[in-house]
Amino acid sequence: KNEVEQSPQNLTAQEGEFITINCSYSVGISALHWLQQHPGGGIVSLFMLSSGKKKHGRLIATINIQEKHSSLHITASHPRDSAVYICAVTGNQFYFGTGTSLTVIP
Amino acid sequence: DAGVIQSPRHEVTEMGQEVTLRCKPISGHNSLFWYRQTMMRGLELLIYFNNNVPIDDSGMPEDRFSAKMPNASFSTLKIQPSEPRDSAVYFCASSLQGGNQPQHFGDGTRLSIL
Fold first, then answer.
1. Alpha carbon distances (Å) from B107 to A35, A85, B13, B43, B66
2. pLDDT of the residue at B102
3. A4 and A88 in contact (C-beta within 8 Å)?
4. Is B92 helix (H, G, I), strand (E, B) or coil?
5. In degrees to the nearest 10, what's the CA dihedral of A105, B88, B107, B4?
6. Closest by Cα among B41, B42, B34 to B108
7. How would residue A93 be classed by pLDDT, with cut points 50, 70 and 90?
8. Rounded Cα distance, A21 and A9, in Å
9. Phi, psi of A24 (to 5 degrees)
10. Which member of A4, A33, A47, B31 lies 3.0 to 4.6 Å from A97 by CB, making a disulfide possible if both were Cys?
11. What is the pLDDT of residue B41?
């Protein structure tokens, strides 16, 4: 069993759609990270959360500590949002989800 | 500001050779992380340092792998001897103290062992 599970694994959306990517974890954590990896391979840290909600532009990340669940939302999706989104948690150890591959079609 | 700088960007070498990957973290960051990414296993943490001291190396696959951080501005990840299964993209990242701070990633080193 993976300590971090993401869903869906793959997602295709039309430009402008609202997108949600989910992350569930089974271990105690001190922080949860959302990472974005573009087709070129570079990795960017989008959010680091330990509670509540954060917003940056069209991206919103939420976390529910009691339910051990986090969501990443993208409003008004755009083709440039096409990337792999990775959920990672830090506690006693680091655990990574396998990623959600998002394709936004114009 | 310069981000995390990794070198080389690409490395192709024959199995059995020693490989050294280099990383320069962002100035002022106290924590440095080495990751490996493969299609099969995704992103894995190999080792991380706080204030130049290795804190958790449980992700280092075996004795062929070693990492050092001689000072706050430089780290190396060495594989000796290299094997084809070591082929992967190796990322270095840095952050302010600990794993509970946003991490800044380098562009990665794409390693191919023939």
1. 14, 16, 20, 14, 21
2. 86
3. yes
4. strand
5. 140
6. B34
7. confident
8. 9
9. -120, 145
10. A4
11. 87
What letter represents residue B46's amino acid?
L
Is B41 an 8 Å CB contact of chain A?
Answer: no
Show which of residues 48-67 on chain A sit within 8 Å of chain B, judged by CB atoms: 48, 50
Q: B103 to chain A, minimum CA–CA distance in Å?
A: 6
Q: Which residue type occupies A17? A: E
Tokens linked to A28: 């105690």
Which residues on chain A are in Cβ contact (under 8 Å) with B59?
94
> Is A39 within 8 Å of chain B by CB?
no
Return the structure tokens found at B104. 């800044």
Whether A9 has its CB under 8 Å from any CB of chain B: the answer is no
Token code pair at residue B8: 């080389």
Q: Of B45, B51, B27, give the one whose Cα is nearest residue B92.
A: B45
Cis omega (within 30 of 0) for bond into B8: yes
Q: For residue A93, which residues of chain B lie inside 8 Å, CB to CB?
A: 45, 56, 58
pLDDT tens, residue by residue, A30-52:
899 999 999 888 999 999 999 99
DSSP-assigned beta bridge partners for residue A70 = A23, A63
| A77 Cα to chain B: minimum distance (Å) | 24
With an 8 Å Cβ cutoff, is B71 touching chain A?
A: no
When pLDDT is averaged across residues A56-62 and rounded to a whole number, the result is 96
**Per residue in B23-63, pLDDT tens?**
999 999 999 999 999 988 889 999 999 999 998 888 898 89
